[in-house]
Structure prediction request, 223 residues.
Amino acid sequence: MKIGNILRGFSQKVLILLAFGGTMMYMCIPDLIVSFKPAVSFEELLWEDGRDIKPGSHVKGNVVYVLDYFASESTYTRRQDGSRSGNRPTGNYYLVPTADSYIGVKSRQADVEALNQLSEETFEYLTTGEEPKTECFMEGKVELLEDKLVKYYQEYLEELGVEKEEIEAMGVPLVVRYVNFTAVRVMTAIGAVLLLLAVLLYRRRYLREARGSGLQRAEDLPG
Prediction:
């Protein structure tokens, strides 16, 4: 096995396929693993003997109760001249009660209207006892809340009347971030196909370099 043949087996196409396929697999595999874990429902989070969640847990189901949002998220595009486009909302961070604590929920912008309505109904439930009627399905994974958002999370809990000592006793805040696991599986499959194509293309080039093209040289042809 010659080093030269190994190196010549790589081409621009092979490297591009490896780069794209590897990047897609690297980005998607962690979420793919989460998608196959048993899901915990939002209703189970309200049970005294419900299942515990931690970073990497899979949460799926209708949100039962939700308080107001404590932070919002938006994106923008920076232009070449240094200016930037207007912010485009991409969702809010809501506070969801559990059996003995609270967790955050990062929504899509598409779910903001339903969650805002459910929030109003939740506060009405706390005063009148009438159960919320709005349904909002969500599926995602549990993560640690970003450090820059912890301040807003804690401030909102204080506004609700939760003592600082209680907030500190809750530990590091968690958040359920929406994930489209169907898209994750599709992207993982595409990444795997790209890597397979890269391997097949590399093998073809390597064998051609190692064995030769199989064509006769000009001096070996008759006449």
Remarks:
- The chain has a mean pLDDT of 86.
- The chain is about 45% helix and 20% strand.
- The first strand starts at residue 39 and ends at 40.
- Residues 142 and 176 are 4 Å apart (CA to CA).
